[in-house]
Structures are given as structure tokens and as C-alpha cells.
Design a protein that fits this description.
By secondary structure, this protein is mainly α. The chain folds into 2 domains: 75 residues, Endonuclease Iii, domain 2, CATH 1.10.1670; 108 residues, Endonuclease III, domain 1. Helix content is 60%, strand content 0%. It has 12 helices and no strands. It is elongated and about 55 Å long. The protein starts with a helix and ends in an 8-residue tail after the last helix.
């Protein structure tokens, strides 16, 4: 699959093709450990935090349950002060407990996300308070391995596209969607290369 994607991306966008050549082989493997619920909890905890800070807080949350991931019912019953003591903000504590309550009551089919279309996954997740488009897109890309997701709200992707096309300003989400239309049906792969391109030294003009 990846060689088809790379062939398409190189042909559709020579500028991105040059990035692909510099970055090297595609290496995004979806995270398959644990449950979908656990993964989405981690995403909420990690919103607007560095990877290291998010991991530290997540480990403290696991410690509340003997070092393992809680079930939805367990997390729904956990008090706000306990979660805040583990490092969650008041708002994130509300969000993870609300997600847990939905999952425990089965008002959302979170463990069937892999059976849903991309649009249905988005609709299911954003119906929960505290989960927006960006978080839902991260679930599609990094948990479910969907190949055609463009996270148009992601600052890293916006910066990479500005650099790729030498734009004067960051592209708006709408402009990014238009620019990225030619990468379909492999916009996840394009996004991964755009993120990696930010780690490269700037190419000379």
C-alpha cells in the first residue's frame, strides 16, 4: 500500500515528492495496544501538552488503578479531586469522566470505531464534550490507521505546508484542505511526511 501512496504523492505534488526523498521510508504504525477507549482517554489527557508531560500524567492516572488502564465504569466513578491530583486540569477531568460515562452506558459505540467509516468515527467522537475534530483525526490516523486524513487544524501541518510552498502566512484550515486535495486518497501519509519535514534542515533556495 505504501509504495502506491508514495508513487501517487510524488506524481501529484513534486514539492512533496522532494520532502519524501529527504525524509525516507514511511514509518507510521497504528497503536494497537489496549482498547479504543483507553486510547481516546490518552488523547484527551495529551491535548495541548508535550509528549513527555502527557505521558507523565497518564502514568499517574494508571497508578490510581494499580498501574493498569481503567475500565469506563471505573473511570466514570473516579472523583474529580483524585484525577486532578494525578495532574489533569479540571476541564480534562470532566471530559474523561464524561467519555467514560458514555462508554459505560454504551451511549457511544467506542469499541466499534474500527468498524465505522471515517465520517462516522468523527461524528461519534465529536459528540462527546471535550473531543474536537483534531482529536478525532488523531484517533483515525494513529489508532485506526486510516490512510486519507488531513488534520487541517494541526499547527505542525500548517507550518510544514507554509514552508513547503513558501507561503507568506500560515494557511488557513480551508486553504490547507484545498492545497491537500491533490494528496487524496493518501492524505494521512502526506501529513506524516509534512510533520517529519519540520525536523529537516531548511533546503537552500
Amino acid at each position: 500500500m505504501h509504495h502506491l501512496a508514495l508513487r501517487h504523492l510524488r506524481a501529484a505534488d513534486p514539492a512533496l515528492g522532494r520532502v519524501i526523498a529527504r525524509v525516507g521510508p514511511y514509518a507510521l504504525a497504528p497503536r494497537t495496544d489496549g482498547t479504543h477507549f483507553d486510547y481516546v482517554v490518552r488523547c484527551i489527557i495529551g491535548q495541548q501538552l508535550s509528549g513527555k508531560a502527557a505521558q507523565t500524567i497518564y502514568q499517574r492516572v494508571l497508578a490510581l488503578y494499580g498501574g493498569r488502564a481503567p475500565t469506563p465504569a471505573e473511570l466514570a466513578k473516579t472523583s474529580d479531586p483524585k484525577l486532578r491530583a494525578a495532574g489533569l486540569s479540571g476541564r480534562k477531568s470532566e471530559y474523561v469522566r464524561e467519555l467514560a460515562a458514555h462508554a459505560a452506558r454504551r451511549t457511544i459505540a467506542i469499541e466499534r470505531l474500527h468498524e465505522m467509516s471515517d465520517d462516522d468515527v468523527m461524528a461519534t467522537l465529536v459528540s462527546v464534550r471535550g473531543i474536537g475534530r483534531w482529536t478525532a483525526q488523531m484517533v483515525l490516523m494513529f489508532r485506526l490507521g486510516r490512510p486519507d486524513v488531513l488534520p487541517e487544524l494541526d499547527l505542525g501541518v500548517q507550518k510544514a505546508v507554509q514552508r513547503l510552498y513558501r507561503l507568506r502566512a500560515l494557511p488557513t484550515p480551508e486553504k490547507l484542505q484545498k492545497l491537500g486535495a491533490k494528496w487524496a486518497p493518501w492524505r494521512t501519509i502526506a501529513s506524516w511526511y509534512l510533520w517529519r519535514s519540520l525536523e529537516l534542515p531548511k533546503a537552500r533556495a
